[in-house]
Amino acid sequence: MILEVTDIMEILPHRYPMLLVDRIIELDPMKYAIGVKNATFNEAFFQGHFPGQPVMPGVLLAEAMAQVGGVALLYPEENRGLIPYFTGIDKMRFRHPVRPGDQAIMRADVVKIKRSMGKVKAQCHVGEMLCAEGEYMFALQPGQATK
User: Fold this and answer.
1) Active site (annotated) includes residue 49
2) To which protein family does this belong (predicted)?
3) Domains and CATH numbers, the chain
4) Which of 39, 56, 107, 143 suits 132 as a labelling partner, its CA being 20 to 30 A distant?
5) Closest CA relative to residue 110, chosen from 74, 83, 78, 143
6) Closest C-alpha to 124, from 102, 104, 144, 96
7) What are phi and psi of 89, to 5 degrees?
8) Per-residue pLDDT averaged across 101-126, rounded?
9) Active-site position among 14, 49, 96, 125
10) DSSP 8-state assignment for residue 3
11) Are 109 and 135 in contact (CB under 8 A)?
12) Mean pLDDT confidence for 80-102
């Protein structure tokens, strides 16, 4: 199942400048999602991180990976409108920078869910290069998404 950015905005509450997923290229709801972030030099964060040596900030890469997991979790109709809040991040590692022109492919696997709490493992690759990986703990809470 492929989701365009307008479909993603129907699922996630994030909006510019914090929506960091451009497309979902594969999705099995409540199991896994694979998403794409096209890193362009026009992203505001590249202007100051770092001048002359632009790289995507690790915290934003971690957020993009979490958003891919959020799509897998929030796709089912009964979960729409919930917000996945971080309760923890474990084993986060940054292995290779994401630079302007890169296409980051992120996979998030739902490891477990018990009531409103759960865990997702995610990885980000550019081509064959592993850029980042980590485990996210979350709580699904009621929220009001804006469109």
Assistant:
1) yes
2) Belongs to the thioester dehydratase family. FabZ subfamily.
3) 5-142 (3.10.129.10)
4) 143
5) 74
6) 104
7) -135, 125
8) 97
9) 49
10) B
11) no
12) 96
- Round to whole Å and give the CA distance between 58 and 123: 13
Could you tell me if 55 and 97 are in contact, meaning their C-beta atoms sit under 8 angstroms apart? Answer: yes
Query: Are the CB atoms for 84 and 102 separated by under 8 Å?
Result: no
Contact 68, 21 (CB under 8 A): yes
Average of pLDDT values for 84-101? Answer: 97
pTM > 0.85: yes or no: yes
Take residue 65 and report the two structure tokens written for it.
Answer: 């990976």
Would you say 131 and 92 are in contact if contact means Cβ atoms under 8 Å apart? no
Average pLDDT over residues 19-37: 98
Neighbouring C-beta atoms of residue 107, cutoff 10 Å: 20
Tokens of 120: 């997702």
72 Cβ partners below 8 Å, 6+ apart?
Answer: 27, 28, 29, 30, 31, 32, 33, 108, 110, 120
Retrieve residue 66's tokens: 């979490």
The answer to whether 76 touches 6, Cβ cutoff 8 Å, is no
**What is the reported pLDDT for 145?**
47
